[in-house]
Design goal:
With 254 residues, the protein is an all-alpha fold. The protein has 6 helices and no strands. α2 packs across α3 and α2 crosses α6. The longest helix is centred in the middle third of the chain and has 70 residues. The radius of gyration is 33 Å and the shape is elongated.
Length: 254
């Protein structure tokens, strides 16, 4: 009997959890794409502003040096470089203005991404736990239905009885605690057996649900750590940004 549970019908609660995870994951990815697009635009404007500012400063140094060398003679080639300084400075200011106008929307997209990721992470954890429990139960049931599995269960029962007899024979534990002590010994021996059997075990076939449940890494534009962990700070920041956008007449939808 196959233990590949992704090829069989899933219990309703597991299927519902996986579907909810898929929905929240999609919502998070969409929001992350929006944030990334805004982040790249902001980076482009800032890079262009920095380049134009540098060119303006370079032109300024050049024409001033040439002006001094010409003993104050405003030659056409000097005036041309002087105009280039002013043009590049104006261009830098225009790019900086674009970046400044985009910044509130970018920061709001960061907050939206925080909310979307939290919803995604919660449903992922729920779905992963339910699906793992389901797979474990299904694999165990399939194993115990085999001849080897049934033999293992019989031997496991004998092992438990042997531990109980050993505890009773030692006479060092109250009779009411003997069964619990024997079970503890059996569980430790079982844990040792599982650890030994798992050493060097080849990876199982890729399960599509488990693959889909892998945690998505955050992108560079997302808020992480302490910045994303305080609901009060996030709510205050959102309110301030919305007020700023409203003042500028910009509509925002999460």
């Amino acid at each position: 009997m196959s233990t590949e549970t992704h090829t069989t019908a899933l219990p309703e609660d597991v299927a519902a959890a996986l579907a909810n995870h898929d929905q929240r994951k999609t919502e998070y990815l969409v929001q992350r794409e929006t944030l990334t697009a805004l982040g790249k635009r902001l980076e482009k404007h800032r890079a262009a502003a920095s380049a134009a500012r540098h060119e303006s400063e370079t032109a300024g140094s050049e024409w001033r040096a040439a002006f001094r060398a010409a003993d104050g003679d405003p030659r056409p080639e000097i005036l041309k470089v002087k105009r280039a300084e002013l043009d590049k400075r104006e261009l830098a200011e225009s790019y900086e203005e674009l970046a400044s106008e985009l910044e509130p929307s970018y920061q709001l997209a960061q907050l939206d991404a925080v909310d979307a990721r939290k919803r995604y992470a919660y449903t992922r954890d729920q779905a992963a736990a339910l699906y793992e429990d389901h797979r474990f139960a299904a694999a165990s049931a399939a194993m115990f239905e085999s001849d080897e599995g049934r033999a293992w269960l019989q031997l496991a029962g004998r092992q438990q009885a042997r531990h109980l007899r050993a505890v009773l024979g030692e006479g060092m534990i109250a009779s009411s605690d003997c069964e619990q002590a024997a079970r503890g010994r059996f569980e430790r021996s079982l844990a040792t057996l599982v650890d030994s059997a798992g050493t060097g075990l080849e990876p199982a076939d890729v399960d599509p649900h488990e693959q889909a449940l892998q945690v998505l890494p955050a992108v560079a534009y997302e808020l992480t750590g302490q910045e994303a962990s305080s609901p009060t700070m996030l709510a205050r920041k959102r309110a301030n940004l919305l007020a700023l956008l409203e003042e500028k007449g910009v509509q925002h939808s999460a």
